[in-house]
Design brief:
By secondary structure, the protein is α+β, with helices and mostly antiparallel strands. The protein is built from five helices and eight strands. A six-stranded antiparallel barrel has the order 2-3-4-8-6-5. Strands 1-7 form a two-stranded antiparallel ribbon. The radius of gyration is 15 Å and the shape is globular.
Length: about 160
């Protein structure tokens, strides 16, 4: 695995395109994304106001109400920083809305998660790694190395 460069969170037109799926969720069309994407509604750490982000589900256990996501732009992502500061949030995935609590995942477990994700979705994983600034050859070892470098969050349904 080679590091191409440190990715910056999108700005301008790119940011608008990245945020486009939020509008689809607002129009009650989030079910179109199935279980691959989720709408995260969290509280801004500075403003205290509700914030939204659509993020990819890396792994899930719907029976237990557990969904895992990676912060592709690292620890600088606003959603990631917000859920660390205020872990209570809501997710919408496959037409279901769940109140959740967010907890960071240790790096070693993140490596395992990314390796499993890469083996399940090889083309998508290579593309995502490229967006995040990593050049990978599609091997489990490369995905594991990427997983050690990006933060993962577990969202667990609150009772």
């Amino acid at each position: 695995m080679d590091v191409i460069g440190t990715p910056q969170p999108p700005t301008g037109l790119r940011r608008l395109l990245w945020r486009l799926p939020i509008g689809l969720y607002r129009m009650r069309l989030g079910f179109l994304f199935g279980h691959r994407l989720m709408l995260l509604t969290h509280t801004g750490r500075v403003t205290g106001r509700p914030r939204r982000a659509v993020i990819e589900v890396v792994e899930r256990d719907p029976a237990r109400g557990v969904y895992i996501a990676a912060s592709g732009f690292g620890t600088r992502s606003d959603w990631y920083r917000n859920v660390l500061a205020r872990p209570e949030a809501t997710i919408e995935v496959a037409g279901r809305t769940l109140p959740v609590t967010a907890t960071p995942i240790p790096r070693a477990e993140g490596a395992d998660l990314m390796a499993r994700y890469g083996m399940r979705h090889p083309r998508a994983a290579v593309r995502l790694c490229r967006i995040m600034g990593f050049a990978v050859d599609g091997s489990e070892a490369d995905f594991r190395a990427v997983g050690e470098r990006i933060p993962f969050v577990r969202f667990v349904r609150r009772a």
